[in-house]
Amino acid sequence: MIDSDNRKPILLVALGGNAMIKKGQEGTAVQQRDNLKVTVRQIARLSQTHRIIITHGNGPQVGNLLLQQECCDAVPKMPLEILVAQTQGQIGYMIESCLDSELMAQNLNASPLVSLISYVVVDEHDPAFKTPTKPIGPVYTKTQAEAASWPFHKTAKGYRRVTFSPKPVTIVEKHEIKQLIDMDFIVICCGGGGIPVIREGRAFSGIEAVIDKDLASARLAVEVGADLFVIATDVKGVATNFGQKNQKILRTLTLADARKHMRAGHFPEGSMKPKVEAAMQFVGIPGKRAVIAFLEEIEQAVAGKAGTEFVA
Ligand code: ADP
Ligand code: MG
């Protein structure tokens, strides 16, 4: 953790893919900007009272880039980590421009904005490198999957390419991010969980993998000494028996209960489980708050009036 004189509490908001492309939407640029307004409007107001870090997912956007490269053989295909870097640029730009417009529209004190291409160190000996588990990109038919050179999994929707999903070890730019928020910059970073890199001496090199954005965000929240970590998604909070008649959205969740519900299988891999794990890691530190909340209720979540608040 790095010390600072800026006394505004540090709020890290992790935006889910749905902040830009809702389920069932095509994901045009107009739709993405429109969707973003809902969250960005709230973050603009929160920036008056908090130092702000925004992290974000990139699932649909990186999926589209993968599909675009397959539609054309005239230019060389780029490896996954370069596509992740591309999405950090495109999404960072969209969040910046939307947030800037909102700050002006609401006549608020406008902090400067910066989007950082962010690297996240992973451990090359992480057991996650033994088995690819994370589905990425478009859905394929069995024939297409068999003809391709990637590992594939059969999912509910069809065949999808899978890649490794190692744990984030440390955010390479943590000191720079901390300095920027202390100067009252609003920082957008760790998009898509960050570009996974392994350390070779003093150098870093990109590696074929995808880091979960909620786990990377929790790591960053710890490393910059954030006070409050909000994971914003498309449900009102963490539920037990999700999607069933006896579903119950929890207003508070103790670490002991979170562990119990996790063991009982209430939180699936790849969606709610990494969010719960991320929140648990953060509130494990004394004095920290973590809330999993609806994208439209970020301000209420910060005020302690919405979402699922984790309790140590
Ligand atoms: P994001 O893009 O925000 O990371 P995800 O799709 O990865 O969103 O995770 C959020 C989804 O998790 C919700 O839309 C919901 O369908 C699903 N989900 C699975 N289990 C639960 C649960 N126990 N409580 C709430 N949501 C759950
Ligand atoms: Mg997710």
Automatic annotation (TrEMBL):
Listed GO molecular functions? carbamate kinase activity
Keyword hit for Kinase = yes
Gene Ontology biological-process annotations:
L-arginine deiminase pathway
PANTHER family documented for this protein:
CARBAMATE KINASE (PTHR30409), CARBAMATE KINASE-RELATED (PTHR30409:SF1)
Q: Which GO terms describe its cellular component?
A: cytosol
What is stated as this protein's family in its record?
Answer: Belongs to the carbamate kinase family.
Q: Which UniProt keywords apply?
A: Kinase, Transferase
Q: Which InterPro entries match?
A: AceGlu_kinase-like_sf, Asp/Glu/Uridylate_kinase, Carb_kinase
Q: Is the keyword Kinase in the record?
A: yes
User: For the Aspartate/glutamate/uridylate kinase domain, which residue ranges apply?
Assistant: 11-285
Q: What is the lineage of its organism?
A: Bacteria, Pseudomonadati, Thermodesulfobacteriota, Desulfobacteria, Desulfobacterales
The record ties this protein, via Gene3D superfamilies, to: Acetylglutamate kinase-like
Q: Name one Pfam family in it.
A: AA_kinase
Name the chain's protein: Carbamate kinase
